[in-house]
Amino acid sequence: MKQRGPGGGRSSSGKPSADEGPGRRSDPAPTRPKIDKASANDRSLDAVIAADKVAALKLAPVSHETEARLDRYIALLREWQAKTNLVAPSTLPHLWTRHIADSLQLVALAPSAQRWADLGSGGGFPGIVLACAMAGTVGASVHLVERIAKKAAFLREAIRVTTSPGVVHLAEIGDNVDRITGPVDCVTARALAPLHQLIGFAEPLMRQGAKALFLKGQDVESELTEATKYWNIQPQLHQSRTGDGWIVELASVERRG
User: Fold this and answer.
1) Is 198 in contact with 235 (CB distance < 8 Å)?
2) Is the residue at 29 inside a domain?
């Protein structure tokens, strides 16, 4: 959207201003930068992201230490976003509410969980966010399973930069059981696959005692209907604090037939 000065470059009488002679045009006003992958580090986004952070931390408050880790994570994500598509470009102005707070709300739904497994971690939501939140917990660990090498490299760098307790597994999602050693308290996934497929990925970990928290959109009811064709489940639904989505909580699953 173009910004115009008082009078749009003309005097209040509607006549050209003194510096606008015949045949001369005033300089065009700056336009708002296009939000795409390459503009992730555009400084014009700083104020927007800062305001969004305030809103997000009201929805999901964290300690100063966790906030500092998340700040480092966001800075790294914006740096890498210019060369690797980690999040939808349209969501860059809302990184904190759309992605950080959305991920943080899982902690309150599994307050005693210390060992997490995040399937299809992608840009780190919710896995890296959970790792940042769990950094002060003795014995905490977050397994991040990602099949794309570039994204796995980013996740490793995010763990290093934030000094958070995470382990990255470069693997197909279905191979996670062989790679994750030790017990898992909670398994999660966000924007990875339809619910009935997610349950199939998570079922081996759930058989060992993990519960599942899956972040889903508005079509959760149709996904639940489809999932019941393949699985016996008793889902508990939690409405997202950050939008129109839902969190599907499953304590146990059993394959039909």
Assistant:
1) no
2) no
Residue at 140 is within a domain: yes
Residue bearing tokens 């009201």: 58
Q: How far apart are CA 192 and CA 197, in angstroms?
A: 9
Domain assignment of residue 3, yes or no: no
pLDDT category, 48, cuts 50, 70, 90? very high
Domain hosting residue 161, numbered range: 37-255
User: In the prediction, which pLDDT does 176 show?
Assistant: 63
CA 255, CA 219: separation in Å to the nearest integer? 22
CA atoms of 80 and 151, how far apart (whole Å)? 10
pLDDT tens-digit readout, 94-151: 999 999 999 999 999 999 999 999 999 999 999 999 999 999 899 999 999 999 999 9
Question: How many domains is the chain partitioned into structurally?
Answer: 1
Can you tell me which residue has the tokens 């763990």? 159
Instruction: Identify the burial level of 147 via C-beta atoms within 10 angstroms of its C-beta, where 0-12 means exposed, 13-18 middle and 19 or more buried.
Output: middle
Please give the DSSP secondary-structure letter assigned to residue 10.
Answer: B
Q: State how far the Cα of 45 lies from the Cα of 23, in Å rounded to an integer.
A: 36
Could you write out the three-class secondary structure of 55-96? HHHHHCCCCHHHHHHHHHHHHHHHHHHCCCCCCCHHHHHHHH
